[in-house]
Amino acid sequence: MRTVDLLVVAGYLFCMVAVGRYFARRQRDSEDFFLGGRRMPAWAVAISVFASLASTVGYLGDPGEIIRHGIGMFVRFGALPFYLAVTLWVIVPFFRRAGVTTVFEILEQRFGRSTRLLGVGIWCYMQLAFLGLVLLLAARVIAQMTGVGEIYVILAIGAASVLYTSAGGLQSVIWTDVIQFVFLFLGVLVTLVVIAAETGTGPRTWWLAVSGTTHPLPPLVSTDLATRHTILGALIFGFVVNLSYNCSEQVVVQRYAATPRPVLMMLANYGAGVLFTLLQIAVGAALLVYYTRFPEALPEGVRDVTQAEFADDAFPDFIQYHLPVGLSGLVIAALLGAAQSTMDSGVNSIAAVMARDVLPAFGYQQVAGNLQLARWTTRGAGLGVLLMAILAGQLSNANNIIDIAQKVVHLGLGPMGGLLLVTILGLRGSALAANTALLLGLAAALAGAFGDLVLGRPLLSPLLIIPVSWLVTLSAAPLLVLLSGGRLASRG
């Protein structure tokens, strides 16, 4: 990496740590640390939610998915009006009335402590696996560009994230997320401008390249559930995944309580999300056009940009070898921002869950208002993420980024989303019924993810694993609760 690029990256990291130190002086108790004193601006929280969920998985994976498979996955935004309506009119008002810090408190109120702890266990696995993957992806790209060992990059990114998160709590998380979003946005814009200048093309050419010229358009529907993309499948995926995040993902639920205007926050979040995802689609399409027009720019041994082994690496390759001096540093800072915005939010949420759900369950009652405990649980969560990233580095590269996320990282998202949705709608009953419904959903997710190891062929598209497991739990929970003598109460 060139000196100018290194200076840009170093300046970015210094800024992040400085923000954390600034907000460290404003923390009085654990409510400030975990909820930002419930007074954060809606627009800043909105950007934080989006930046937290975007991550390096999306920043690198979305362009790779476009290059390799075309636009099929992004038909999912057609479902936006439907999941947004349910979120604004049902989910957000419910959590505002509930007044909880973590989503798992609701599970104990409705079903019992064992359901709360089972939910915590599933969510913590997903969060640690997701954060480990996010950190690993960023570290691999930066290690390749700089020649620094991968493990040292993991430790550097992780240490910086934990430092400002454990110092300034949710306030530092949200404001660093805002800065990181700016870097994400600039990184994408710089890439698009450079490709447009070098190829003499623009959005129309890029769109045509991925919507029929190089990739066939997806079918409306398919009787084979293993078909990767269909229009109906993408719409169902978009609806289910977003509903599940909004009612069961602690990173999102925690922010409902962090601002006095959560509805405005979610509207702004989805506005930023749609805009940024369209830009990510454009990056994938533009990279496809660039490497198609300049095949000599492909690395040695790569014959085509859509080659499975290269699609996810196309964006990092372009950053490293084809951006001007200084701009590479900006985009690498954006890549760091994608990793850190996810890691800081995830670590803060894990710490909140440990302090509110896990420690009290094992007899530690002096939790409320304990700022030092909040900081130490944050450091412990950060250490867990570092270990997970190092462990994830041992995984095979056989699957692309999106496949790993759906098959390994998000296995519990569908079951958790299904159970929390019916809980929000009024379900209450025995812990046995709720736990069984969760486990049935997990079994469906595992069958969809790894059924090919037994049957020799995939049972489901990776993009249907979450919807199918969600449907299993959503259907099983009310039935099992009613059979065990539970009831459907009035919502709220």
Describe what you observe in this structure:
The protein has 492 residues and is mostly helical. It has a single domain (3-377), classed as Sodium/glucose cotransporter. It is 75% helix and 1% strand. The protein contains 20 helices and 2 strands. It has helices spanning 3-24, 30-35, 42-69, 80-98, 104-110, 113-146, 150-199, 203-213, 231-248, 250-256, 262-293, 308-311, 314-322, 327-361, 371-392, 401-409, 413-424, 431-450, 452-455, 465-483; strands at residues 427-428, 487-488. A two-stranded antiparallel sheet has the order 1-2. Helix 7 (150-199) packs across helix 11 (262-293) and helix 18 (431-450) runs antiparallel to helix 20 (465-483).
| N/C terminus separation | 55 Å
Strands ordered across the widest β-sheet: 1-2
Number of helices: 20
Structural class based on helices, strands and sheet pairing: mainly alpha
Percentage of residues assigned to helices: over 70%
CATH homolog superfamily: Sodium/glucose cotransporter
**Average predicted local confidence, pLDDT:** 83
Q: Biggest β-sheet, characterized?
A: 2 strands, antiparallel
Order of helices and strands: HHHHHHHHHHHHHHHHHEHHHE
CATH overall fold name: Sodium/glucose cotransporter
The assigned CATH architecture is: Up-down Bundle
Apparent shape: globular
Q: C-alpha Rg, in Å?
A: 22 Å
Taken as a percent bin, the fraction of beta residues is under 5%
DSSP summary, beta strand count: 2
What is the CATH C-level name? Mainly Alpha
Q: Supply the number of structural domains.
A: 1
Poorly predicted ranges (pLDDT <50, ≥5 residues)?
Answer: none
